[in-house]
Design brief:
Alpha-D-Glucose-1,6-Bisphosphate, Chain A, domain 4, single chain, 7 strands, disordered C terminus, 3 helices, seven-stranded antiparallel β-sheet
Length: about 130
């Protein structure tokens, strides 16, 4: 099941929000803490997350396509995939693939997408634009 939304920010800004583990608690309703070596995900990344209720859970990045897609397993169970598709220089579509087995999690994904949208737009606004010098 795919939940998505169009974000008024460049794809690179959205991608950075998705792979920056320090932002996960700000956009992921199911993540209250993260342990990961380094700030950003990459191919083969491993770490732990703690949900709002329950113990720490191991995670493994199972697929990583720079700038476009990452997926993971949590506690050994295939979990969500996170995608970014550029529409143009200022907009993109961000989405979360939710396994059908946990289809109700799509509601959590929709909340996450709203938060990702906000964080990415804030990031886009806070970065200075380059202007050509005369």
């Amino acid at each position: 099941m795919w939940v998505s939304r169009v974000v008024e920010a460049p794809a690179a800004h959205v991608w950075r929000v998705l792979i920056d583990t320090t932002t996960w608690t700000r956009w992921g309703p199911s993540v209250s803490e993260v342990r990961h070596q380094g700030r950003f995900l990459g191919p083969g990344s491993r770490g732990q997350i703690r949900p709002p209720v329950g113990p720490w859970l191991d995670f493994d990045v199972t697929r990583f396509e720079e700038g476009h897609l990452w997926s993971w397993s949590v506690a050994g169970v295939p979990a969500t995939a996170h995608r970014v598709v550029s529409i143009d220089a200022r907009r993109c579509q961000v989405g979360i693939d939710v396994p059908l087995l946990v289809a109700p999690y799509a509601l959590v994904g929709a909340v996450a997408l709203q938060r990702i949208d906000r964080l990415a737009r804030e990031s886009a606004l806070s970065r200075p634009r380059r202007t050509a010098l005369p």
